[in-house]
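Write out this protein's structure.
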Amino acid sequence: MFKDRFVAALLALLTGAVGGHRFYLRGSRDVWGWLHPPALLLGLYGVWRFVVAGQSDALTWGLLGVGAALVIAVVVQTLVIGLTADEAWDARWNAACTRRSANGWGPVLVVVFALFTGVGSLTGALAYVLQRYFGGG
């Protein structure tokens, strides 16, 4: 079955936290894809503990680390998918197909958006955490 690079990059950007791009590329038996939703839930629980419950213990920081690692992994996966050359993409994902990829600017625009959202969210989270940690509030 033909795997489109633009679709894979867009899925990585929009549904990467739940492993949508991995299931698109590898199917429902992908173990790493199934690890995305629990990591997302752990990260969200860490955010809840930190922001709503006001806890700043080792468990909360560990959970926040899991969430941050997931965000970084999804952004990196989006970048790798979006910046792969069509020939290399077809060699890896479409070797058995006669159809060949002819992607234009679509995957590149997804990569640009991924960079903006990834850097923006991580910078905002870092600023909030540092202000909370050093500000005492």
